[in-house]
Every structure is written in structure tokens, then in C-alpha cells.
Design goal:
Blueprint (H helix, E strand, L loop, with lengths): L4 E6 L5 H12 L11 E6 L5 E2 L5 E2 L3 E2 L8 E3 L11 H8 L9 E9 L2 E4 L5 H4 L6 E6 L9 H12 L3
Parallel strand pairs: 1-2, 1-6, 2-5, 7-9
Antiparallel strand pairs: 3-4, 7-8
Amino acid sequence: MAEPKIAVVAFDGISPFHLSVPCVVFGEDRSAAGVPRFDFRVCAAEPGRLATTAGFSITADHTLDALADADVVIVPSWRDLTPDSPFLRALKSVALPKTVKHHVFFAYQQDGNEYDSDGVISVASQLAANAAAAHGYRSDHSDIIESLEVFRGFAAVLAGFR
């Protein structure tokens, strides 16, 4: 069986912490422990060296074109929070295979009758028209990464890949 292709998107101004999580989970070979291997790739949203928020730079071996044949695409964070930003437009313009099911996981805080943002990022910037499903969680920007409800949602979606 072919190794699942996992792609993570990096960009100029990325937090090394946000990038490190998918790199550790999918990029390290743990096959000796019985964990499946992955064909893992870091894809740059723009060419050249990418500055991080921690004061050092990285380079990626792949461009966003490498997302086209990925089984899973991870966008650990993004820098431009406006719904129609150049970064989000570039990301959404990549033609993914029809077999890829696009799921969006996002946090929101309720402000009156409006589901406006997670306290940092607007809900509108997180949604995509081509998503197979949108999974919204009433949470804030940082608490969502520790939510058991969110982990269960991820697990349910990933179980569908088996």
C-alpha cells in the first residue's frame, strides 16, 4: 500500500510552533514502532526563504502545486486574516483531486446572533465553498487546540479515510 501523502503549508511569517506539530506527527519515521510511514512534504506559499515569527528562516522543497496530489493538506495557521486575502486566494486556487474531501475545522465565539470570529480570525476567512463539511466549535482561538470535542471530530473524519 502506498504511503499516504501529507502536505503542510508554510508561508512567510509562520509560527515555528504551528509548523512543528504536523512535522513531528507526520514527518518523523516511526515505522520501527509499528506506526505507518507518510510521504510528508512542506509546501511554500511563496518562493524563497520564509521568515518565521521566531527570528529564523526556513525553506521548503515544494510549492503549493504539491498539494494537488496530497491525500491530506494541513494549513496549521495563516497570516492574513481577511476573507479575500492573497494568501487564502492562492490556497483556494490549487486544484485538488476530486477524491480529496475538504473539511474545515474552525472556532467561533457567538456575539449576539452572529458567529463572527474565534476572537482573532473571522469565521468568513475560515470557510471555503468547496468544503465537504465545515465543523464549527464554540471556542476561542487558542482553546480549540485542546478541545476533546475537536479531537473527536478529527478522529471521525480521519476514520473515513480507512
